[in-house]
Each structure stands twice: as C-alpha cells, then as structure tokens.
Design brief:
The chain has ten helices and 13 strands. It is α/β, with parallel strands linked by helices. Strands 3-2-1-4-8 form a five-stranded mixed beta sheet, with helices on both faces. A five-stranded mixed beta sheet has the order 11-10-9-12-13, with helices on both faces. Helix 5 packs antiparallel against helix 7. Bound molecules: zinc ion. Zinc ion binds next to loops.
C-alpha cells in the first residue's frame, strides 16, 4: 500500500486527490458540492468522490481515506455534527465511507486539517505557538499553544471569524454584530462592495481596483483593519511566534500582507508584533491536511519528503 485518498469538502467544491505516502499527488478529482439539493445529496457526492478516487488508485494500493469537512465535527466518533452551509446534522460519514470502501477512514475538520498541514510541512512547523487564519468564503483560525492545537472546552476554539471587531457593526447570521467575517472574508468584501457601489465584483477584483476605485479602497482598508484588530487581540492572549494567513484571499499576496503588517503593528504598541506571513501551501492546505491525517492513521510519521513533493501536479 503506497497511497491515501484525501478529500476536502467545501461549500462550493469537493476536492479530492490520491496522494502517495511520499506526498506526491497522483490523481485529482473535483466535483461541485450539491449543497442546494440538501444534505443527503452532499453525502452522496462525497461517497461518489471517494469511490472514484479509490478506483483510480486501485483499492489494493490505498492505505487509508481522509475526509475533512466544515462546521462542527466529532473526529473521535467520525460524525459530521453540523454545518450551516451543507445542512447536515450528525452525518456518520466515517462509518459510511469505511463501509463503502472497506478502508481505514479518518474524518476531521477542514480548518483543523489545514493547521495540521501547516504545522507538519508548512510555516508553523518549527514553532510551538502560532496562529493560522484561513480566509475564504468565511474566516476561521487555528491557535497552537505549546505545540498543541487549542480546541477548547467544546471543540469550538479558533472561531476568529466571529470576533466582534466593530462592536456596533453589521449583523452577522450568527446573531452577533460586527463579526470579522462580515468585513474581511472574500464573501464579506464582495457584499460590502456591492452595498457601497452597486456593482458586483469578486474580492480579487476589488483588491486590484483599490488604487482607482474609492469604494474598493474603502472596503479593502476596512477588511484589513478588521483583520489587524483580530490578530492584535489574539497576540495579546496567546503571544504567537508567527501568524500565517492562508485560504483564497491569501492569493492577494503583498496587497494583503503589507497593509496587514502595518495595521497590526499600529494596533500593538507596547510590544513587538509577531511576524505575519502567507502560507506556502496556498489553497491546498485543507486537502493536504486530510492526506496527512490519513497517512498518519496508516502509520506514516516522517513527512520530510512531503515538503518537496506537495507542489507536484
Ligand atoms: Zn458572526
């Protein structure tokens, strides 16, 4: 057995890959997430994706299956407890997939998996204290303290997207006001730009337009300021050695990083700010984390080769 099947279930896309135990990606398979058709359709699509990948890999070659999903996940029980975007309640995904494939199967949380990838082969590998901020459609975080991911009393630590950065700000679907996610997620940036200008645009268009379009500049500046407030708050509480930004919005590169570093330093006056860096794993960190979790379950404990192989097509 020389590979694992890894799947990252997102709100819009189910991404999958067959990954060698050396970290080399051998096959990829991607499908739209049929969220509008309800949770049963999503569960069916996840099972179909895993089946396709296992068939491509040749089942005899697969050591384990790793699946990561958003929302609330009970990794110990192998149950996807709840997801607002996907609509499921207590979906016993691990048991279903293990039954379908006859393979050792791991189910975990997508952002936690991104944190595992970052701390195994990414930027936080060499440090014991770090903050990972994943900015995509939503915003979530992984705090690592003294070498351990902080999960909290109920498994819900790291919800940096629902830090209230503007106390009297916009109402969030979560019920609070002024949540970071409303201002600084890709979806939030698009929505706020539409409200300010009447025009539809993606977050990456808005970043590019900020030099010539005042509405784009205002929305972007406020997004960066919100992130700086949240990073400063986490710095006060947890003193991370590094803050890593990943997810779709991190593709903005220095357009995000430079103003975020400046704004964070302005919010932290009495001590130095932690370095703020982009993830080297790009938008793949959830999928890579899923592969690493599956490989670990299959007994792999040396991921050195994965650092060079992970970018292979
Ligand atoms: Zn909220």
């Amino acid at each position: 057995m020389s590979s694992v099947v890894a799947v990252d279930v997102g709100g819009t896309t189910i991404k999958g890959a067959v990954v060698g135990l050396d970290g080399q990606v051998r096959h990829r398979h991607q499908a739209p997430t049929p969220a509008p058709h309800g949770p049963d359709a999503v569960v069916h699509a996840v099972r179909a994706t895993v089946a396709t990948l296992v068939a491509e890999a040749d089942a005899a070659d697969v050591a384990a299956v790793g699946v990561v999903v958003p929302g609330t996940v009970d990794a110990t029980a192998g149950v996807a407890r709840y997801s607002t975007n996907l609509g499921w309640h207590d979906a016993p995904l691990r048991a279903l997939l293990a039954h379908d494939t006859g393979l050792l199967t791991v189910l975990d949380h997508d952002v936690r998996a991104a944190g595992v990838a970052e701390s195994t082969i990414g930027r936080t590998e060499a440090v014991d204290d770090s903050l990972l901020v994943v900015i995509g459609t939503g915003i979530a975080g992984v705090l690592t303290s003294a070498g351990q991911p902080v999960t909290g009393a109920t498994g819900r630590a790291g919800e940096i997207g629902h830090l209230a950065v503007w106390p009297d700000g916009e109402l969030c679907p979560c019920g609070q006001r002024g949540c970071l996610e409303r201002y600084s997620s890709a979806a939030g940036i698009s929505r706020r730009y539409r409200a300010a200008s009447g025009r539809e645009a993606s977050a990456d268009q808005i970043v590019r337009w900020r030099g010539t379009d005042p509405a784009a500049a205002e929305v972007w500046d406020q997004a960066v300021e919100g992130l700086a407030i949240a990073v400063a708050a986490c710095t006060m509480m947890f003193d991370p050695a590094i803050v890593v930004v990943s997810g779709g919005l991190s593709q903005a590169g220095s357009s995000l990083l430079d103003p975020l570093r400046t704004a964070t330093a302005q919010r932290i006056r009495w001590r130095e700010s932690p370095p703020v860096e982009l993830s080297a794993l790009g938008a793949e960190s959830g999928l890579l984390g899923s592969a690493i979790l599956a490989a670990r379950a299959a007994g792999v404990d040396d991921f050195t080769a994965w650092k060079t192989n992970r970018l292979a097509p």
